[in-house]
Design brief:
Layout: H1 7-15, H2 23-34, E1 40-41, E2 52-54, E3 59-64, H3 66-69, H4 84-107, E4 111-116, H5 123-137, E5 143-146
Length: 152
């Protein structure tokens, strides 16, 4: 199926997709801040520049987009029909980078949470996610992953 816009327009649209301060990231930040958690953003000295760094808990939080980071089994992790081999390699590189970053953080003694955007689409889901993160931060668990299909 052909693209419905020309190459220049598609390029402009794709370049407008932000990597920081996305809507899912902002709603989670507000929910955690309301619960009394304080964090640093996108720390340069931490592998992978996590979205949130909670040094007091030696924990980092990544808010991943289901499409770009390939949330397995998620309805939002679709693959474009145009240039499928390009997209397959791009997505595979993202997944490899995410895995390497997580491994490096765990090796450095950090606790790692991955929150998928699908878990932050509805207000009640945001609250459930924030509660699960709070519980995780106060526990000794090393890793946490929350998505729409995950209980938390």
């Amino acid at each position: 199926m052909a693209d419905i816009v020309d190459r220049q327009t598609r390029s402009r649209m794709m370049s407008g997709i932000r990597g920081k301060d996305t809507k899912p990231e902002m709603v989670l930040r507000r929910a955690l801040h309301a619960r009394g958690f304080r964090y640093r953003l996108h720390g340069k000295g931490v592998p992978g520049r996590p979205d949130m760094i909670l040094a007091k808990y030696r924990a980092v939080i990544f808010v991943h987009g289901c499409f770009w980071h390939r949330h397995e089994g998620c309805r939002y992790a679709t693959t474009p029909a145009t240039r499928p081999e390009f997209w397959a390699e791009k997505f595979a590189a993202n997944v490899r980078r995410d895995r390497a970053t997580c491994d490096a953080l765990v090796a450095d003694g950090w606790r790692v949470a991955t929150i998928w955007e699908c878990a932050l689409r509805k207000p009640q889901s945001v609250e459930q996610t924030a509660a699960a993160i709070e519980e995780w931060l106060l526990s000794e668990n090393r890793q946490l992953e929350i998505g729409e299909t995950d209980p938390g």
